[in-house]
């Protein structure tokens, strides 16, 4: 039971943190892009937009920073068995991530509080540094996860790892795909959320030029990331098919090993009979996608001992959600770009705005679902093939207490953040609640 | 010098910097809670202004220390995480509420009532966190963490650990008050914080005495280190000297120098704790050497930290230069 609470607490903390971390990575880029547009067009709206984005970044970054601190402690509080033995092997990317986080915090401080104190060039440079450090920290921390999926860089003995090579461990196979997949997901989730918010405002108050300009900053990033992501995701899946066949089998709920395996869309795995029900099957699709060969053999779950199966239903559903959301976003990006090409301007019709509003949360949904696929898909291992999650958990009892405590805290913080961001946006709407100015202490 | 000693040094340095910067932030929260008198609002404003650009950065030193601990001394990290599960969780809650409340207050300052409520959360968490942090340090030094059966509360809830918690709280409050005297050019405000600094200084002295008295029974290992090892004695003597110096400088209103002396005092206290505990990381189970990662992992980590330092320190200098500009009174 305590293992379950430990996993739930870690999962909850990560699920919560990821959203804020993603915003901390992507919003600075959008903020810098608005700064650049302001510089080029001398349009005050873009400056105002970048100020708004900076405030949003400050709020989200603060929550991301404290939830990240919680995570760094939780590694030990919940998984001392893992960290005590493997901390030294994966310490390097964490140390580099710490550095990146440090520079991000420093330059965010300069950017936020220095607008009136430093030259525009230095200010812009700080913004660029924030965006770069954010990307770097996501890169490094994802490397840790890559290692957990694919542990290399040591020789395993009965007493633990020897001949440790931290650099090899940091760049375990698949690092290119997984880091790219994660980074693009961060930009995609944030850009879609931003487009969704401004689409909502424009639907209710058509003609607000500020929000049109905001769309013109966020839409290119949203469209680009939505179109790149399926390609990256495909590469990632190809790697998983070879390196972690059981994860792919669970994601596709493929119970039997098959040549020319079909790609299943949707469906509900039936664990009793070992079949997938109600799924739409595209013949030979999975073999083609995973191995670029319509007749390739794909390993089914039957190849693996029952006690090494991930939770099939959860992994399958999460995978379907991720792919479905990703597909919808890519489609919307295609339509948007086509209209942009035909009309010579970003589409602003109510129908398109509605579509963007509906798809606004999809980036975050896909990111969370994708993360669940990789984490659930690795179970029952914390370090695949080497250490089971059950062997890593803390001997401390009563883990229900911290779990519920942090659940309530995160719930409260989530509500507060939404409340504050709504106020930020409301401040840009005429006849909104009240004319808005955030009273800085100085 | 053996790599684990170097890494231990970096760990202590990170903790010193966390005490100097993050500790002062906590102290700022304490004075936010205790703001009073005719300049109550101005005091809070000064605290917020001093904290705003830097609190996020100051907080990173702690993360750095945690990362060094689990990368370089993984077994110690695991052992401490198990033994100090409850206080570390409390510390985390304090850190979460402090950071978010400060940010929420800054960006949601329209209604005084709402702002005051966030201020309360912020300052309440600022009192809780350093006290718990000190408690953890006290429990580490106490040397009852390892071995035996592990209860949720045994091992860290000792009179000695509690005394260290109170000591840390007083010390950070003192440090913050001294810093704040030099953060404003307004004489009345300077006097406010000078009085607070002097009061907190006395509290630090009393708490230190309490810690010392309890150390004999509560932390025999540290007591022994304190009284027998020569370099620990030198460190503690130096601490006493700068403490008196800081007090004198405050009395004579040399605020800029008082700030330096107070910082030196806090740094020496943290270093003194580490020195008295050496070579133990978790008394009496794990030493710096027995908890250390493999030599290759240590070397790579040191290189990464060097690269990090080459990036971080120039950035920090820039940050402080940008905000060194004389405080603007609004």
UniProtKB/TrEMBL annotation, chain A:
Its main location: membrane. GO terms for molecular function: electron transfer activity; heme binding; metal ion binding; oxidoreductase activity, acting on diphenols and related substances as donors, oxygen as acceptor. It is found in: Cell membrane. InterPro entries: Cyt-d_ubiquinol_oxidase_su_1. It comes from the Bacteria. GO terms for biological process: aerobic electron transport chain. It is a multi-pass membrane protein. Signal peptide: none annotated. Belongs to the cytochrome ubiquinol oxidase subunit 1 family. This is Cytochrome d ubiquinol oxidase subunit I.
From TrEMBL, chain B:
It is a multi-pass membrane protein. It is found in: Cell membrane. The keyword Cell wall biogenesis/degradation does not apply. Coiled coil: none annotated. One of its GO terms (cellular component) is plasma membrane. Pfam families: Cyt_bd_oxida_II. Its main location: membrane. InterPro entries: Cyt-d_oxidase_su2. One of its GO terms (biological process) is aerobic electron transport chain. Keywords: Cell membrane, Membrane, Transmembrane, Transmembrane helix. The chain crosses the membrane at residues 6-34, 46-70, 76-97, 118-140, 160-180, 200-219, 231-251, 260-280, 300-320. GO terms for molecular function: electron transfer activity; oxidoreductase activity, acting on diphenols and related substances as donors, oxygen as acceptor. Belongs to the cytochrome ubiquinol oxidase subunit 2 family. This is Cytochrome bd ubiquinol oxidase, subunit II. The lineage of its organism: Bacteria, Pseudomonadati, Myxococcota, Myxococcia, Myxococcales.
């Amino acid at each position: 039971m305590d293992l379950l609470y430990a996993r739930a607490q870690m999962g909850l903390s990560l699920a919560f943190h990821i959203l804020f971390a993603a915003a901390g990575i992507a919003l600075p880029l959008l903020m810098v892009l608005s700064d650049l547009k302001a510089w080029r067009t001398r349009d005050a709206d873009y400056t105002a937009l970048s100020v708004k984005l900076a405030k949003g970044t400050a709020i989200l970054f603060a929550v991301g920073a404290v939830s990240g601190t919680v995570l760094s402690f939780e590694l030990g509080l919940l998984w001392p068995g893992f960290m005590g033995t493997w901390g030294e092997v994966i310490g390097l990317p964490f140390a580099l991530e710490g550095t990146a986080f440090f520079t991000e915090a420093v330059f965010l401080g300069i950017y936020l509080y220095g607008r009136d104190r430093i030259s525009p060039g230095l200010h812009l440079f700080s913004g660029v540094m924030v965006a770069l450090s954010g990307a770097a920290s996501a890169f490094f921390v994802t490397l840790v996860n890559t290692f957990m999926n694919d542990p290399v860089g040591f020789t395993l003995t009965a007493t633990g790892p020897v001949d440790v090579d931290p650099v090899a461990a940091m760049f375990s196979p698949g690092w290119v795909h997984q880091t790219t997949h994660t980074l693009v997901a961060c930009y995609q989730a944030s850009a879609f959320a931003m487009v969704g918010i401004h689409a909502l405002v424009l639907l209710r108050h058509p003609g607000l030029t500020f929000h049109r300009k905001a769309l013109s900053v966020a839409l290119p990033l949203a469209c680009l990331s939505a179109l790149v992501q399926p390609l990256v995701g495909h590469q990632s899946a190809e790697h998983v098919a070879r390196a972690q066949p059981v994860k792919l089998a669970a994601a596709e709920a493929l119970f039997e090993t098959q040549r020319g395996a079909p790609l299943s869309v949707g469906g509900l795995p039936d664990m009793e009979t070992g079949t997938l029900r109600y799924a739409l099957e595209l013949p030979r699709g999975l073999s083609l996608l995973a191995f670029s060969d319509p007749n390739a053999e794909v390993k089914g779950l039957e190849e693996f001992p029952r006690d090494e199966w991930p939770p099939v239903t959860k992994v399958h559903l999460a995978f379907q959600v991720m792919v479905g959301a990703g597909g919808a976003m890519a489609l919307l990006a295609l339509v948007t770009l086509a209209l942009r090409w035909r009309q010579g301007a970003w589409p602003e019709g109510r129908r398109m705005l509605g579509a963007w509003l509906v798809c606004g949360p999809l980036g975050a949904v896909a990111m969370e679902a994708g993360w669940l696929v990789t984490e659930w898909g690795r179970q029952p291992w914390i370090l695949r093939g080497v250490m089971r999650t059950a062997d890593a958990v803390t001997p401390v009892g009563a883990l229900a207490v911290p779990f519920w405590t942090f659940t309530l805290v995160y719930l409260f913080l989530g509500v507060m953040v939404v409340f504050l961001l709504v106020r930020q946006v409301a401040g840009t709407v005429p006849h909104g609640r009240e004319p808005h100015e955030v009273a800085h202490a100085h | 010098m053996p790599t684990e000693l170097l890494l231990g040094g970096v760990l202590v340095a990170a903790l010193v910097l966390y005490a100097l910067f993050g500790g002062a932030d906590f102290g700022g929260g304490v004075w936010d809670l205790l703001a009073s008198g005719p300049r109550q609002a101005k005091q809070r404003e000064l605290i917020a202004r001093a904290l705003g650009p830097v609190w996020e950065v100051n907080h990173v030193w702690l993360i750095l220390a945690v990362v060094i601990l689990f990368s370089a001394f993984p077994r110690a990290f695991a052992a401490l995480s198990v033994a100090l599960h409850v206080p570390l969780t409390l510390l985390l809650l304090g850190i979460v509420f402090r950071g978010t409340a400060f940010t929420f207050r800054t960006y949601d300052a329209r209604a005084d009532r709402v702002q005051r409520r966030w201020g309360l959360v912020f300052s309440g968490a600022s009192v809780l966190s350093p006290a718990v942090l000190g408690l953890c340090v006290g429990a580490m030094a106490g040397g009852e963490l390892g071995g035996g059966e592990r209860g949720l509360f045994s091992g860290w809830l000792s009179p000695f650990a509690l005394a260290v918690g109170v000591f840390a709280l007083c010390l950070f409050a003192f440090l913050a008050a001294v810093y704040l005297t030099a953060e404003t050019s307004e004489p009345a405000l300077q006097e406010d914080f000078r009085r607070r600094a002097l009061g907190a200084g006395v509290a630090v002295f009393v708490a230190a005495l309490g810690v010392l008295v309890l150390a004999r029974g509560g932390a025999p290992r540290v007591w022994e280190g304190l009284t027998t090892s020569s370099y620990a004695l030198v460190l503690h003597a130096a601490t006493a000297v700068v403490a008196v110096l800081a007090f004198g400088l405050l009395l004579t209103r040399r605020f800029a120098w008082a700030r330096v002396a107070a910082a030196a005092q806090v740094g020496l206290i943290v270093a003194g704790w580490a020195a008295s505990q050496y070579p133990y990381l978790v008394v009496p189970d794990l030493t710096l050497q027995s908890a250390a990662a493999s030599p290759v992992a240590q070397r790579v980590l040191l290189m990464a930290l060097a690269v990090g330092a080459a990036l971080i320190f120039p950035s920090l200098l820039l940050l402080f230069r940008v905000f060194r500009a004389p405080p603007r009174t609004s």
